[in-house]
Amino acid sequence: MIEIHNLNLAFGRKPVLQNLNISFEKGKVHGIIGLNGAGKSSFFNALTQVIPPDSGSIRFNGNALKRGRIGYLETNNFFFFHLTGREYLHIFEQTNTAFDLPAFEKLLLLPLDDLVENYSTGMKKKLALLAVLKQDKPIYIFDEPFNGLDLESNRTLELIIQTLQEKGKTILLSSHVLEPLLHTCNQIHLLQNGSFVKSYEQPDFGRIREELFQHLEVEIRNQLQQAL
Ligand SMILES: Nc1ncnc2c1ncn2[C@@H]1O[C@H](COP(=O)(O)OP(=O)(O)OP(=O)(O)O)[C@@H](O)[C@H]1O
C-alpha cells in the first residue's frame, strides 16, 4: 500500500498539490486523470522526489517511500546526442533478470542500432520505457506512456502493464486519452485543484466519460456556435 498524507507542493506562490491525501493499493493499476496543468506530473515528481514536496508524508508498506523503489517513466525523456538506442540502454543497470531485450526489440520494432537523435517521438518513448522495464522495482510510475505510440505499440504497452500487474507490481499511470486507462486500470482517480476529488472502481468506469464530459460538451458546443 502506498499511503499519502497531506502532501503539499507549490511553485513559488502557486500551490500545485494541496493537502493531497490518497492510498494506492498494492498490486493494482491506478490511473490518474485531470486537466492540463492539474498537477499529474508534479504529483509523480513529488512521489519520486524529483521535486521534493514542501510537506506531507509518502509511505510504502508502512515505511517512508524511497526513490529507489520506483521505476519512473517521465513525460519528457532526456537523451544524449550521438548515442544509439542500444548504447542508451547500456547506461541503465539490468536488475530485472527476466528482461529480454531481443524480444522487446522485435515486439516494439525498435531500431536499436540507429542514433536516438533520429528516432521519432514514439520510438523515443519506447526506448525510455525499455530503460525502465530493465529495472526490477515494486512500483512503476508511467507519466503519459501512451503519448506518440502507434496502435500496435499502444496495445503492447497495455499488455506490458497487465503483465507487470500479474507479477505483483503496483502501477500508477496518467494518460490524456481515457481509453488505455479503461483497458488497464483497477481504479481511476481524478485530480482537480491540487487534490484527488474522486476515485472510480472498475465497475463504475462507464460513468467516467459521462460525468466528466456531459456538461463540458454542451458548454463547448454553445461557445463554438458563436466562435466558428
Ligand atoms: N518547474 C515548474 N515551475 C513552475 N511551475 C510549474 C513547474 N512545473 C509545473 N508547474 C506548474 O504546475 C502546474 C501543474 O503542472 P503539471 O505539469 O504537474 O500538470 P499536469 O497535470 O501534468 O499537466 P499536463 O496534463 O498538461 O501534462 C501547472 O500550472 C504548471 O504550470
UniProtKB/TrEMBL annotation:
- One Pfam family, please name it: ABC_tran
Lineage: superkingdom? Bacteria
Ordered alphabetically, the record's keywords are:
ATP-binding, Nucleotide-binding, Transport
Q: Which CDD domains match?
A: ABC_DR_subfamily_A
| Residue ranges constituting the ABC transporter domain according to the UniProt record | 2-218
Which PROSITE patterns does this chain map to?
ABC_TRANSPORTER_2
Indicate whether Signal appears among the record's keywords: no
Could you tell me which InterPro entries the record lists for this protein?
AAA+_ATPase, ABC_transporter-like_ATP-bd, ABC_Transporter_VariousFunc, P-loop_NTPase
Molecular-function GO terms, alphabetical: ATP binding; ATP hydrolysis activity
Keyword Nucleotide-binding belongs to the record: yes
Write the protein's name: ATP-binding cassette domain-containing protein
What organism does this protein naturally occur in?
Adhaeribacter soli
